[in-house]
Design goal:
mainly alpha, 3-stranded parallel β-sheet, two-stranded parallel ribbon, 13 helices, elongated, binds iron/sulfur cluster
Length: 330
Amino acid sequence: MMSRIFSGIQPSGELHIGNYLGAVKNWVGLQHQFDTFICVVNYHAITIPYAPEDLRRRTHEMAVGLLAAGIDPEKATLFVQSMVPEHTELAWIFNTITPLGELERQTQFKEKAGRQEQVMAGLLNYPVLQAADILLYRADIVPVGEDQVQHLELSRVVARNWNARFSPDEPYFPEPQARLTPMRRIVGLDGQAKMSKSIGNTVGLMESPEQIWEKLRPAVTDPARKRKTDPGEPERCPTIYPLHRAFSSPDTVLEVEVNCRGAKWGCIDCKKVLHASMVAELTPIRERAAELEADPARVTETLERGAVKARAVASQTMADVKTRMGLPLA
Ligand code: SF4
C-alpha cells in the first residue's frame, strides 16, 4: 500500500515565500508519491485569542493559497480540521493516555504560554490534538521543519501508549516518522528573524512584481559588499543568495556565485535577476489565486469534498478505536 503522509498548516491567511518554500512547495511534489492529507488546522488556531471573522477569512485565504500553489484536490485530500469532527473525538481519547509531564515540557508550549496572560488548557493539549490529526489517518510520514520534531515525538509516544494499552498484539497505530523538509529555514529579508508576515520581512505569494521589488530592493546582503567593487561571499548573504537557490536555475545560481565573489556586479543587479526568477515562478500562482478568489463557492465545494474523503478514513479509525476500547459505536 502507498505510504500516507499528513501535514497540517495554520490558517494564517495568505501564504508567504517562507511557508511556501519551507512546506507547501515540498507537499506539491510529495502528493505525486504518497497518499497525501493536507489539513488547515483551525482548531489549533483557536488556542490563542482571535477574532471569528478574521479566522474565517484567513482559513479561506489559506485554502486559496494552497490550491493556487499547486495542491491538486484530485491527488491530495485537502480539508479543514473542524469539518472532520473525529479530530477532536480522538484527541479526547488521547488526552486520557498522555502524561501531563510530557505536555508541560514541550518547548512550544513554554514559549507560547510565556506570552499569554492566562494560559488555556487547549494550549497545553495542542500536541495531543496534533497526535490525533496524524494518527486519525494512520499516517506513516509527517513532513516537518526542525521546530516540529518534538511534537512529532509526542505523537509517537501517544501511538505507543495507546497500542500498548488497547492493541498490544498487533500495533494499530503506526509510529509516524519525521521527514525533514529539504529547505533550510529561510531568514527574513531583514537578515534577522524567521520570515513572518507580522514582522513584514517576507514576500506574500500573491504580491505583484512591483511589490516584490519593493521588498527585495532594501534586503540585507553580505555586509562585506559596501561598494560594487568589494568582493562578496554568497554564503554570508543571508537573504538574496538563499532565495536564488530556491527560485533560480542552477546555472543562474552559479552565475550569482561567480559575480558575487568576483565583484562583477552589484547587489542590485543580483536582486534584479532574483526578481525575474521569483516573478516567473509566482505569477502563475497569483493568477490561479485570482481565479479562485473570483469563485469562492468553488473553493468551499473543494473543501467539502476533501472533508468527505477525510471522514471516510477518520470514521473507520474511530470505529476501530472505539471497538478496542469498549466504547459503543453510534
Ligand atoms: S551579489 Fe548577490 S549574493 Fe552577493 S551579497 Fe550581493 S545580493 Fe548577495
